[in-house]
Amino acid sequence: MRFQKLIQSSGAVLFCALSLNAARAATGGEPAAVIQVDVASCLAATAADDVDKAATACAAVIDNEKTAKGDLIKALIARAAFYARHDQVDRAIADDSRALLLDPALADILNARGGLWLKKGDKPKAVQDFGAALKIDPNHEKAKANHKAMARELERIGAQMAVAGKPSFNCRRAARAVEKAICGNRELADLDREIFASNARVIREARNPAEAKNLQREQDEFIARRNAGYGRAGYDLKKAMQERLQRLNGVDGY
Q1: pLDDT one-digit tens code per residue, 122-157
Q2: CB-CB neighbours of 128 under 10 Å
């Protein structure tokens, strides 16, 4: 009986030994230890704006397949902010975008990426990110302010595009040669519209009716000189219109 138990015990020990040896043989040596990814170094380096360490420390986290999702997001956000501070906008957008793929509900990062799109001059994408941030967090103050400002800006741009190349008057009713010339030239048409708008503004902001009347008289005299001078030798319509616009914008210090 004792002999039988001894054989069973020896067999168990031998099995364990063989299993350990097999594991070592499969890995080519000692069993692999679990690698701990140090995200703290990345966060510390970017927070300190350490140019020498930030890129290396964060890359060690971001490029490691064993990095936990939460730590990867932290490292991406930290490096994106670091890149943004150093005007590496495309790299910052790439890191923020990757973080958002991992967690689309990051309102702060959507707002941050919106600001980066704005730096690149891509206003539609900026508005889209600000709006997405507000959908996640309707009370996000920064996203709310950014979205409101950009929506107004896009509305203004849209309005400008709608009237671009169109003068202040109806070209279908243009009878004078100077009016037809303005209608046929986008730059002159834009100048005419700006003159009309600036004149309306200074009259609206006049201190009293008498001043408003004098301002309108100046505008009427300019139109009369323009109509009479166009076509004559030496008359520069564009120059005359630019000078008139400068004069109007100088009335109230603009």
Answers
A1: 888 988 899 899 999 999 999 888 888 877 776 666
A2: 17
